[in-house]
Specification:
Serine Threonine Protein Phosphatase 5, Tetratricopeptide repeat; 15 helices; binds flavin-adenine dinucleotide; FAD binding; Crypto/Photolyase_N_sf; five-stranded parallel β-sheet; Photolyase/cryptochrome alpha/beta domain-containing protein; 384 residues; chromophore; Rossmann-like_a/b/a_fold; DNA Cyclobutane Dipyrimidine Photolyase, subunit A, domain 3; globular
Protein backbone atom coordinates (compact mmCIF):
# COMPACT_ATOMS: atom_id res chain seq x y z
CA UNK A 1 0.00 0.00 0.00
CA UNK A 2 1.37 3.39 -0.87
CA UNK A 3 1.78 6.05 1.82
CA UNK A 4 -0.85 8.81 1.78
CA UNK A 5 1.54 11.49 3.02
CA UNK A 6 3.44 13.05 0.11
CA UNK A 7 7.13 13.15 0.68
CA UNK A 8 10.30 14.32 -1.03
CA UNK A 9 12.85 11.87 -2.31
CA UNK A 10 16.50 12.91 -1.89
CA UNK A 11 18.96 11.08 -4.11
CA UNK A 12 22.28 10.91 -2.27
CA UNK A 13 25.50 10.46 -4.18
CA UNK A 14 28.75 12.21 -3.24
CA UNK A 15 27.14 14.28 -0.50
CA UNK A 16 27.07 11.89 2.45
CA UNK A 17 26.51 14.47 5.17
CA UNK A 18 23.88 16.61 6.91
CA UNK A 19 25.66 19.96 7.29
CA UNK A 20 25.62 22.11 4.15
CA UNK A 21 23.65 19.60 2.16
CA UNK A 22 21.35 21.79 0.02
CA UNK A 23 19.15 18.94 -1.22
CA UNK A 24 18.50 17.64 2.30
CA UNK A 25 18.08 21.16 3.66
CA UNK A 26 15.35 22.06 1.17
CA UNK A 27 13.66 18.66 1.42
CA UNK A 28 13.51 18.99 5.21
CA UNK A 29 11.75 22.33 4.85
CA UNK A 30 9.06 20.65 2.75
CA UNK A 31 8.27 18.01 5.38
CA UNK A 32 8.43 14.23 5.06
CA UNK A 33 11.42 12.86 3.21
CA UNK A 34 13.19 9.68 2.25
CA UNK A 35 16.72 9.28 0.97
CA UNK A 36 18.14 6.75 -1.44
CA UNK A 37 21.62 5.66 -2.41
CA UNK A 38 22.00 3.65 -5.63
CA UNK A 39 25.01 1.36 -5.65
CA UNK A 40 26.07 0.58 -9.21
CA UNK A 41 28.74 -2.03 -8.63
CA UNK A 42 29.55 -2.46 -12.32
CA UNK A 43 29.71 1.31 -12.86
CA UNK A 44 28.31 0.90 -16.37
CA UNK A 45 29.83 3.50 -18.64
CA UNK A 46 32.75 4.24 -16.35
CA UNK A 47 35.56 2.64 -14.45
CA UNK A 48 34.62 0.51 -11.43
CA UNK A 49 35.03 2.08 -8.00
CA UNK A 50 38.49 1.37 -6.57
CA UNK A 51 39.01 -1.11 -3.76
CA UNK A 52 39.94 1.47 -1.14
CA UNK A 53 37.05 3.74 -2.07
CA UNK A 54 34.58 0.86 -1.68
CA UNK A 55 35.75 0.44 1.90
CA UNK A 56 35.27 4.13 2.54
CA UNK A 57 31.89 4.22 0.83
CA UNK A 58 30.49 1.43 2.99
CA UNK A 59 31.57 3.06 6.26
CA UNK A 60 30.47 6.47 5.13
CA UNK A 61 26.99 5.22 4.22
CA UNK A 62 26.71 3.37 7.54
CA UNK A 63 27.61 6.54 9.39
CA UNK A 64 25.03 8.61 7.51
CA UNK A 65 22.43 5.88 7.95
CA UNK A 66 22.93 6.11 11.72
CA UNK A 67 22.63 9.89 11.66
CA UNK A 68 19.44 9.85 9.59
CA UNK A 69 17.80 7.09 11.60
CA UNK A 70 17.90 9.37 14.67
CA UNK A 71 15.23 11.41 12.86
CA UNK A 72 13.40 8.36 11.60
CA UNK A 73 14.50 9.12 8.03
CA UNK A 74 15.10 6.06 5.88
CA UNK A 75 18.27 5.74 3.84
CA UNK A 76 17.15 3.23 1.25
CA UNK A 77 19.87 1.21 -0.41
CA UNK A 78 19.27 0.17 -3.99
CA UNK A 79 21.50 -1.42 -6.59
CA UNK A 80 21.61 -1.32 -10.36
CA UNK A 81 22.55 0.83 -13.29
CA UNK A 82 19.12 2.09 -14.32
CA UNK A 83 18.82 4.99 -11.91
CA UNK A 84 15.77 6.45 -13.66
CA UNK A 85 13.66 3.31 -13.17
CA UNK A 86 14.80 2.90 -9.57
CA UNK A 87 13.95 6.51 -8.74
CA UNK A 88 10.61 6.40 -10.54
CA UNK A 89 9.58 3.23 -8.71
CA UNK A 90 10.50 4.78 -5.39
CA UNK A 91 8.60 7.97 -6.15
CA UNK A 92 5.52 5.91 -7.01
CA UNK A 93 5.88 3.65 -4.05
CA UNK A 94 6.10 6.56 -1.59
CA UNK A 95 3.53 8.70 -3.36
CA UNK A 96 6.21 11.36 -3.79
CA UNK A 97 6.00 13.94 -6.56
CA UNK A 98 9.29 15.70 -5.88
CA UNK A 99 12.93 14.72 -5.99
CA UNK A 100 16.01 16.73 -5.00
CA UNK A 101 19.67 16.03 -5.56
CA UNK A 102 22.99 17.82 -5.43
CA UNK A 103 24.77 18.09 -8.74
CA UNK A 104 27.74 15.93 -9.78
CA UNK A 105 30.09 17.14 -12.50
CA UNK A 106 32.01 14.09 -13.68
CA UNK A 107 31.04 13.71 -17.37
CA UNK A 108 29.20 10.38 -17.03
CA UNK A 109 27.23 11.45 -13.96
CA UNK A 110 26.46 14.88 -15.35
CA UNK A 111 25.04 13.54 -18.62
CA UNK A 112 23.12 10.75 -16.88
CA UNK A 113 21.58 13.22 -14.43
CA UNK A 114 20.52 15.63 -17.19
CA UNK A 115 18.75 12.82 -18.99
CA UNK A 116 17.05 11.54 -15.80
CA UNK A 117 15.92 15.06 -14.93
CA UNK A 118 14.34 15.47 -18.35
CA UNK A 119 12.56 12.11 -18.19
CA UNK A 120 11.24 12.69 -14.67
CA UNK A 121 9.92 16.11 -15.62
CA UNK A 122 8.05 14.49 -18.49
CA UNK A 123 6.41 12.27 -15.86
CA UNK A 124 5.30 15.40 -13.96
CA UNK A 125 7.83 14.93 -11.19
CA UNK A 126 9.26 18.13 -9.72
CA UNK A 127 13.05 17.98 -9.89
CA UNK A 128 15.34 20.43 -8.09
CA UNK A 129 19.11 20.17 -8.27
CA UNK A 130 21.69 22.18 -6.34
CA UNK A 131 25.29 23.28 -6.70
CA UNK A 132 27.32 21.24 -4.29
CA UNK A 133 30.62 19.54 -5.02
CA UNK A 134 32.48 22.57 -6.31
CA UNK A 135 32.76 26.22 -5.35
CA UNK A 136 32.70 27.29 -9.00
CA UNK A 137 30.68 25.24 -11.43
CA UNK A 138 32.69 24.22 -14.51
CA UNK A 139 30.73 26.38 -16.96
CA UNK A 140 31.14 29.59 -14.93
CA UNK A 141 34.87 29.94 -15.65
CA UNK A 142 35.68 30.58 -19.30
CA UNK A 143 38.10 32.21 -21.68
CA UNK A 144 37.19 35.40 -23.54
CA UNK A 145 35.99 33.17 -26.39
CA UNK A 146 33.78 31.14 -24.05
CA UNK A 147 35.96 28.00 -23.95
CA UNK A 148 37.41 26.15 -20.96
CA UNK A 149 40.39 27.73 -19.19
CA UNK A 150 43.43 25.49 -19.54
CA UNK A 151 46.04 27.25 -17.43
CA UNK A 152 45.66 26.95 -13.68
CA UNK A 153 46.72 30.45 -12.70
CA UNK A 154 44.27 32.02 -15.16
CA UNK A 155 41.57 29.70 -13.92
CA UNK A 156 42.19 30.54 -10.28
CA UNK A 157 42.49 34.29 -10.83
CA UNK A 158 39.13 34.22 -12.54
CA UNK A 159 37.60 32.27 -9.64
CA UNK A 160 38.95 34.84 -7.21
CA UNK A 161 37.48 37.69 -9.25
CA UNK A 162 33.96 36.26 -8.81
CA UNK A 163 31.74 36.84 -5.76
CA UNK A 164 32.66 34.69 -2.74
CA UNK A 165 31.23 31.16 -2.77
CA UNK A 166 27.89 30.97 -0.97
CA UNK A 167 27.76 30.46 2.81
CA UNK A 168 27.18 26.86 3.99
CA UNK A 169 23.64 25.74 4.79
CA UNK A 170 22.88 24.79 8.40
CA UNK A 171 22.07 21.26 9.42
CA UNK A 172 18.51 20.57 8.19
CA UNK A 173 15.70 21.01 10.71
CA UNK A 174 13.81 17.78 10.18
CA UNK A 175 10.14 17.99 11.02
CA UNK A 176 8.45 15.08 12.73
CA UNK A 177 9.28 12.25 10.33
CA UNK A 178 6.67 9.58 10.74
CA UNK A 179 5.07 8.96 7.40
CA UNK A 180 7.75 7.16 5.40
CA UNK A 181 8.91 3.73 6.42
CA UNK A 182 11.95 2.06 4.91
CA UNK A 183 9.84 -0.43 2.99
CA UNK A 184 11.89 -0.63 -0.22
CA UNK A 185 15.34 -1.16 1.24
CA UNK A 186 17.43 -3.97 -0.24
CA UNK A 187 19.41 -5.50 2.66
CA UNK A 188 21.47 -7.42 0.10
CA UNK A 189 23.08 -4.15 -0.99
CA UNK A 190 24.38 -3.47 2.51
CA UNK A 191 25.61 -7.07 2.68
CA UNK A 192 27.37 -6.80 -0.65
CA UNK A 193 29.08 -3.54 0.27
CA UNK A 194 30.08 -4.96 3.65
CA UNK A 195 31.60 -7.98 1.92
CA UNK A 196 33.52 -5.85 -0.57
CA UNK A 197 34.85 -3.66 2.20
CA UNK A 198 35.90 -6.68 4.30
CA UNK A 199 37.78 -8.19 1.36
CA UNK A 200 40.11 -5.20 1.45
CA UNK A 201 43.74 -6.24 1.98
CA UNK A 202 44.77 -2.73 3.15
CA UNK A 203 44.80 -1.51 6.76
CA UNK A 204 42.60 1.51 6.26
CA UNK A 205 40.77 1.11 9.56
CA UNK A 206 44.05 1.78 11.40
CA UNK A 207 44.34 5.20 9.77
CA UNK A 208 40.90 6.45 8.91
CA UNK A 209 37.42 6.94 10.34
CA UNK A 210 34.96 7.84 7.60
CA UNK A 211 31.93 9.98 8.38
CA UNK A 212 30.81 13.56 8.75
CA UNK A 213 31.71 13.86 12.42
CA UNK A 214 35.30 12.88 11.69
CA UNK A 215 35.46 15.27 8.76
CA UNK A 216 34.44 18.21 10.93
CA UNK A 217 36.84 17.20 13.65
CA UNK A 218 39.73 16.90 11.13
CA UNK A 219 38.95 20.36 9.80
CA UNK A 220 38.90 21.88 13.30
CA UNK A 221 42.12 20.20 14.27
CA UNK A 222 43.82 21.34 11.06
CA UNK A 223 42.74 24.95 11.64
CA UNK A 224 43.94 24.82 15.23
CA UNK A 225 47.26 23.08 14.69
CA UNK A 226 48.49 23.30 11.10
CA UNK A 227 46.81 25.97 8.99
CA UNK A 228 49.16 28.72 10.15
CA UNK A 229 52.24 26.83 8.91
CA UNK A 230 50.61 25.56 5.71
CA UNK A 231 52.61 27.87 3.42
CA UNK A 232 55.93 26.44 4.63
CA UNK A 233 54.93 22.86 5.31
CA UNK A 234 52.30 21.85 2.79
CA UNK A 235 54.88 20.26 0.51
CA UNK A 236 56.49 18.21 3.31
CA UNK A 237 56.56 14.46 2.91
CA UNK A 238 54.82 14.00 6.26
CA UNK A 239 51.06 13.52 6.48
CA UNK A 240 50.13 15.73 9.41
CA UNK A 241 51.15 19.06 7.87
CA UNK A 242 48.10 19.25 5.61
CA UNK A 243 44.39 18.90 6.27
CA UNK A 244 43.95 15.25 5.17
CA UNK A 245 40.47 16.21 4.09
CA UNK A 246 40.67 14.83 0.55
CA UNK A 247 38.69 11.58 1.14
CA UNK A 248 36.06 13.46 3.14
CA UNK A 249 35.72 16.00 0.34
CA UNK A 250 35.67 13.19 -2.20
CA UNK A 251 32.69 11.46 -0.59
CA UNK A 252 31.03 14.71 0.36
CA UNK A 253 31.24 14.14 4.11
CA UNK A 254 32.24 17.77 4.25
CA UNK A 255 31.52 20.39 1.60
CA UNK A 256 34.10 22.68 -0.01
CA UNK A 257 31.90 25.61 1.09
CA UNK A 258 32.24 24.60 4.74
CA UNK A 259 36.00 24.25 4.36
CA UNK A 260 36.36 27.53 2.46
CA UNK A 261 34.39 29.62 4.94
CA UNK A 262 35.85 27.92 8.02
CA UNK A 263 39.45 28.65 7.06
CA UNK A 264 38.61 32.20 6.03
CA UNK A 265 36.74 32.78 9.26
CA UNK A 266 39.65 31.41 11.31
CA UNK A 267 42.09 33.72 9.58
CA UNK A 268 39.98 36.85 10.04
CA UNK A 269 39.03 36.09 13.62
CA UNK A 270 40.82 37.89 16.46
CA UNK A 271 40.88 34.65 18.43
CA UNK A 272 43.99 32.47 18.40
CA UNK A 273 45.47 30.69 16.58
CA UNK A 274 46.62 33.49 14.26
CA UNK A 275 46.80 32.44 10.61
CA UNK A 276 49.41 33.90 8.28
CA UNK A 277 47.80 35.37 5.20
CA UNK A 278 50.22 33.48 2.94
CA UNK A 279 49.10 30.21 4.53
CA UNK A 280 45.45 31.07 4.03
CA UNK A 281 46.09 32.03 0.39
CA UNK A 282 47.99 28.84 -0.26
CA UNK A 283 45.34 26.65 1.33
CA UNK A 284 42.61 28.29 -0.76
CA UNK A 285 44.86 27.77 -3.78
CA UNK A 286 44.96 24.05 -2.95
CA UNK A 287 41.18 23.99 -2.93
CA UNK A 288 41.51 25.78 -6.26
CA UNK A 289 43.45 22.83 -7.68
CA UNK A 290 40.52 20.62 -6.80
CA UNK A 291 38.19 23.00 -8.64
CA UNK A 292 40.54 23.08 -11.60
CA UNK A 293 40.72 19.28 -11.96
CA UNK A 294 36.93 19.13 -11.87
CA UNK A 295 36.77 21.89 -14.51
CA UNK A 296 39.20 20.04 -16.79
CA UNK A 297 37.47 16.69 -16.42
CA UNK A 298 34.12 18.26 -17.18
CA UNK A 299 35.41 19.86 -20.39
CA UNK A 300 37.83 17.09 -21.41
CA UNK A 301 36.06 13.82 -20.55
CA UNK A 302 38.81 11.63 -22.03
CA UNK A 303 41.43 13.07 -19.70
CA UNK A 304 41.72 9.81 -17.70
CA UNK A 305 42.87 8.04 -20.88
CA UNK A 306 44.63 10.70 -22.96
CA UNK A 307 47.50 13.14 -22.38
CA UNK A 308 46.29 16.68 -21.73
CA UNK A 309 49.09 17.90 -24.02
CA UNK A 310 48.90 15.81 -27.17
CA UNK A 311 52.67 16.17 -27.79
CA UNK A 312 53.24 13.88 -24.78
CA UNK A 313 51.63 11.03 -26.72
CA UNK A 314 54.96 10.85 -28.63
CA UNK A 315 56.88 9.74 -25.52
CA UNK A 316 58.33 6.27 -25.97
CA UNK A 317 56.80 4.47 -22.99
CA UNK A 318 56.03 0.79 -22.65
CA UNK A 319 54.54 -1.55 -20.10
CA UNK A 320 57.30 -3.53 -18.43
CA UNK A 321 55.53 -5.81 -15.91
CA UNK A 322 58.65 -6.28 -13.75
CA UNK A 323 59.32 -2.55 -13.43
CA UNK A 324 55.66 -1.83 -12.89
CA UNK A 325 55.40 -4.40 -10.14
CA UNK A 326 58.53 -3.14 -8.40
CA UNK A 327 56.96 0.33 -8.36
CA UNK A 328 53.59 -0.93 -7.15
CA UNK A 329 55.11 -2.99 -4.33
CA UNK A 330 57.60 -0.32 -3.28
CA UNK A 331 60.66 -2.37 -4.29
CA UNK A 332 62.45 -0.03 -6.69
CA UNK A 333 65.45 0.49 -4.42
CA UNK A 334 64.80 4.24 -4.27
CA UNK A 335 63.86 4.87 -0.61
CA UNK A 336 61.61 7.87 -1.11
CA UNK A 337 59.65 6.17 -3.90
CA UNK A 338 59.39 2.90 -1.99
CA UNK A 339 58.26 4.61 1.21
CA UNK A 340 55.51 6.44 -0.68
CA UNK A 341 54.30 3.35 -2.50
CA UNK A 342 54.25 1.23 0.66
CA UNK A 343 52.37 3.93 2.50
CA UNK A 344 49.82 3.97 -0.32
CA UNK A 345 49.30 0.21 -0.11
CA UNK A 346 48.70 0.29 3.63
CA UNK A 347 47.03 3.63 4.34
CA UNK A 348 45.47 4.52 0.98
CA UNK A 349 47.04 7.97 0.95
CA UNK A 350 50.22 9.86 0.09
CA UNK A 351 51.12 13.54 0.53
CA UNK A 352 50.92 15.64 -2.61
CA UNK A 353 54.69 16.04 -3.06
CA UNK A 354 55.20 12.29 -2.75
CA UNK A 355 52.47 11.62 -5.31
CA UNK A 356 54.38 13.85 -7.72
CA UNK A 357 57.68 12.10 -7.01
CA UNK A 358 56.38 8.55 -7.49
CA UNK A 359 54.36 9.48 -10.57
CA UNK A 360 57.31 11.22 -12.14
CA UNK A 361 59.58 8.27 -11.29
CA UNK A 362 57.24 5.79 -12.97
CA UNK A 363 57.01 7.77 -16.19
CA UNK A 364 60.38 9.49 -16.57
CA UNK A 365 62.64 6.91 -14.94
CA UNK A 366 60.95 3.56 -15.46
CA UNK A 367 59.40 4.76 -18.74
CA UNK A 368 56.11 3.05 -17.96
CA UNK A 369 52.93 4.68 -19.37
CA UNK A 370 51.23 6.99 -16.86
CA UNK A 371 47.92 5.20 -17.40
CA UNK A 372 49.33 2.18 -15.53
CA UNK A 373 50.21 4.37 -12.57
CA UNK A 374 46.83 6.03 -12.66
CA UNK A 375 45.12 2.62 -12.59
CA UNK A 376 47.11 1.63 -9.50
CA UNK A 377 46.38 4.91 -7.77
CA UNK A 378 42.71 4.46 -8.59
CA UNK A 379 42.54 1.10 -6.84
CA UNK A 380 44.56 2.12 -3.76
CA UNK A 381 43.77 5.78 -3.05
CA UNK A 382 40.89 6.60 -0.74
CA UNK A 383 40.37 9.95 -2.48
CA UNK A 384 40.45 8.80 -6.13
C1 LIG B 1 49.85 12.05 -9.19
C2 LIG B 1 48.82 12.72 -8.31
C3 LIG B 1 47.59 12.10 -8.09
C4 LIG B 1 46.61 12.70 -7.30
N1 LIG B 1 45.41 12.07 -7.13
C5 LIG B 1 44.45 12.65 -6.38
C6 LIG B 1 43.19 12.02 -6.20
O1 LIG B 1 42.94 10.94 -6.73
N2 LIG B 1 42.27 12.64 -5.42
C7 LIG B 1 42.53 13.84 -4.81
O2 LIG B 1 41.65 14.35 -4.09
N3 LIG B 1 43.69 14.46 -4.98
C8 LIG B 1 44.67 13.91 -5.74
N4 LIG B 1 45.87 14.55 -5.90
C9 LIG B 1 46.04 15.88 -5.31
C10 LIG B 1 46.66 15.93 -3.91
O3 LIG B 1 47.81 15.13 -3.84
C11 LIG B 1 45.70 15.51 -2.80
O4 LIG B 1 44.47 16.17 -2.95
C12 LIG B 1 46.27 15.88 -1.43
O5 LIG B 1 47.50 15.23 -1.24
C13 LIG B 1 45.29 15.50 -0.35
O6 LIG B 1 45.83 15.77 0.91
P1 LIG B 1 45.17 16.85 1.86
O7 LIG B 1 43.71 16.63 1.93
O8 LIG B 1 45.92 16.84 3.14
O9 LIG B 1 45.45 18.19 1.05
P2 LIG B 1 45.58 19.71 1.53
O10 LIG B 1 46.96 20.17 1.18
O11 LIG B 1 45.14 19.89 2.92
O12 LIG B 1 44.60 20.46 0.51
C14 LIG B 1 43.21 20.65 0.79
C15 LIG B 1 42.37 20.05 -0.30
O13 LIG B 1 42.66 20.68 -1.55
C16 LIG B 1 42.58 19.72 -2.61
N5 LIG B 1 43.90 19.62 -3.26
C17 LIG B 1 45.10 19.90 -2.73
N6 LIG B 1 46.08 19.76 -3.65
C18 LIG B 1 45.47 19.36 -4.79
C19 LIG B 1 45.94 19.05 -6.11
N7 LIG B 1 47.24 19.13 -6.45
N8 LIG B 1 45.04 18.66 -7.04
C20 LIG B 1 43.72 18.59 -6.73
N9 LIG B 1 43.22 18.89 -5.51
C21 LIG B 1 44.08 19.27 -4.55
C22 LIG B 1 42.20 18.38 -1.97
O14 LIG B 1 40.80 18.23 -2.06
C23 LIG B 1 42.64 18.57 -0.53
O15 LIG B 1 41.92 17.78 0.38
C24 LIG B 1 46.87 13.96 -6.70
C25 LIG B 1 48.11 14.58 -6.92
C26 LIG B 1 49.07 13.97 -7.71
C27 LIG B 1 50.38 14.67 -7.92
Amino acid sequence: MSSKIPCTLVWLRRDLRLIDNPALFHAAKRGQLITVYIFDEDCSGRRKTGQACLWWLYHSLKSLHNQLSQWNIPLIMKSGNDAFTILKELLDSYNADTIYWNRCYEPFEYNRDCSIEEKLKMENVTVETYQDRVLFEPWTIKTAKGGPVQIYIHFWNQCLSLPQPRKPYDKPKFKNQTGCQSKCDEPAVWQRLAKLSQDMPMKLQDFWHPGEEQAISKLKSFIKNSLNAYAEKSQCLRLNTTSNLSPYLHFGEISPFTVWHSVRHASSSAEPPAVKSESLKQYLRSLGWREYTCHLLFHYPDLPQKCFRSSFEQLKLQVDPVKLQSWQQGNTGYPVVDAGMRQLSVAGIMPNRLRMIVASFLIKHLLVPWQKGEEWFWSKLIDA
